[in-house]
Amino acid sequence: MGVFDTDGTDASGHEQVVFCQDRQTGLKAIIGIYSTALGPALGGTRFYPYESEAAALADVLKLSRGMAYKNALAGLDLGGGKAVIWGDPARVKSEGLLRAYGRFVESLNGRYYTACDVGTYVPDMDLIARETRYVTGRSLEHGGAGDSSILTAWGVFQGMRAAAEHTWGTPSLAGRTVGIAGLGKVGKYLAGHLVEDGATVVATDVNETALAWARATHPQIRLVADTRALITSDIDVYAPCALGGALDDDTVPLLRAKVVVGGANNQLAHPGIEKTLAERGILYTPDYVVNAGGVIQVADEIEGFNFERAKLRATGIFETTRRILRLADDEGVAPAVAADRLAEQRMADVGRLRTIYLG
Q1: What CATH code is carried by the domain that includes residue 108?
Q2: Where exactly are the transmembrane stretches of this chain (predicted)?
Q3: Which domain holds residue 121?
Q4: At 206, which CATH number?
């Protein structure tokens, strides 16, 4: 995918893409701003050892577009953006690098607000904030929202409740078996909500620390060797909570679940997978709808963070998901298509107001 439309078929549609480099600290970052129709672009910074610059660019373009749709459906007056830092955080992350990155964020003068994502954490945001005003997901000590995965998981749980109601007639996972792929930031909190709701949880993770946490905290969770073992288990709901692309041409034919609701971004490996899911009778609840709790949490910082207010807003993901599933049925389209239509409608309707001259 390119940034500009060179042949009429492969444009990303982004407003702005910024490449940032600081040789001394080793910073190599890309900031993608997809849309500011609803307000400043908000989205996290992913720190990841991509195979190539092209792979980093492709990821930031995809992620920032997703944030525009996510923020629109979350009811936020914020546009969509995302950033990636290219490198292994375990090897190259440093105070100097993060602060250099913060200088680049500041240079955009509020067009982009950053936050945590894969490979970045609350302490990193506190360091970045020493160089820029435009950062969320800060620590509680600095007036921030803290760990945004708390409300991300809460929102995924609400979306799962709505999907359960749509599929089985009751907004509860009690008596259902849920398979979680990834017990990291979001997956571990989601597991807790499901156990409390009376669900049977099956899970897997590539990180032994995460598995040890599960054994110690929720010994009733059944752990399996890998994702293939998970998706071929007798599960009712599949919850991808690791990296994107979890639903592809290899995994979808093997899925035994009737519902897919997870915290990972960009779960569909390519366009058309949603049709394959529908053909198999599997209800896919769009990831950017149900995992919006985290962005709701960090966005609340902009007006002065209040956890209860943010949680109430994140609880609204239940009604948003319910609305999308009903619209999909009424219009005979996949839920992913229905969600896109609602997001695009809000961006057009509210974004249009910015054209009214205020003097």
Answers
A1: 3.40.50.10860
A2: none
A3: 16-66+78-141
A4: 3.40.50.720
Q: Which residues contact 196 (CB under 8 A, 6 or more apart)?
A: none
CA distance 181 to 225: 11
Catalytic residue among 82, 93, 188, 258: 82
Crossing angle for the helix pair 307-315 and 149-168, to the nearest 10 degrees: 20
Q: Is 70 a catalytic residue?
A: no
Q: Has 187 been labeled as part of a binding site?
A: yes
Note the pLDDT tens digit of each residue in 239-248. 999 878 899 9
Radius of gyration over every alpha carbon of the chain, rounded to an integer in angstroms:
20
Asked whether residue 185 is marked as a ligand-binding residue, the answer is yes
pTM of the model: 0.89
**235 & 285 share domain:** yes
Q: How far is CA 269 from the centre of its chain?
A: 15
Listed in order, strand segments (DSSP E) in 8-94 are 16-22, 27-35, 41-42, 45-48, 79-86
- Please report the pLDDT score of residue 282 as a whole number: 96
Q: State the chain's mean pLDDT as an integer.
A: 94
186 among the known binding-site residues? yes
Domain boundary among 96, 122, 141: 141
In a domain, 1, yes or no: no
**Residue that finishes a domain, picked among 125, 141, 157:** 141
DSSP state of 58: H
